[in-house]
Design brief:
alpha+beta; 2 domains; two-stranded antiparallel ribbon; 5 helices; 6 strands; 32% helix
């Protein structure tokens, strides 16, 4: 499976569990876990343990690439400050031009349609 990793680290060192709590935080190198050949950092031991109970529930969709780009069949590095948890899944989006253009704005207009396109493109990339 393709993943958006930098030096083997997922989610740009953000604690993926913290997004589900509504308060994204950078992870701490003292609390790490590995899943699918990627290293994840966590802000607390509690979040690390939560992740380890069900890692597939917390990993970002589309390997951590931008969901809008994936809906167009492309890979793009997202900005973890632009994100959404929808239907129990974590999605990241790109932000350009000093955060003025945010791909999340496109996503929220028709999330089901774009998710279906992204799911199809992701499946094709990982076939």
């Amino acid at each position: 499976m393709k993943q958006n990793l930098k030096n083997g680290i997922a989610a740009q060192e953000y604690d993926v569990v913290s997004f589900f709590n509504g308060t994204p935080k950078k992870g701490n190198k003292a609390y790490t876990s590995s899943f699918n050949d990627a290293k994840y950092f966590f802000a607390s031991l509690e979040n690390k343990e939560t992740f380890e109970k069900s890692p597939e529930s917390y990993t970002p969709q589309y390997g951590g690439f931008c969901a809008i780009a994936m809906s167009e069949g492309a890979e793009a590095n997202p900005n973890p400050k632009s994100w959404e948890v929808r239907d129990g899944k974590l999605y990241f989006f790109t932000r350009m031009l000093f955060g003025i253009i945010d791909a999340k704005r496109q996503w929220v207009k028709k999330p089901e349609e774009l998710r279906d396109l992204a799911d199809a493109a992701w499946a094709k990339m990982n076939a």
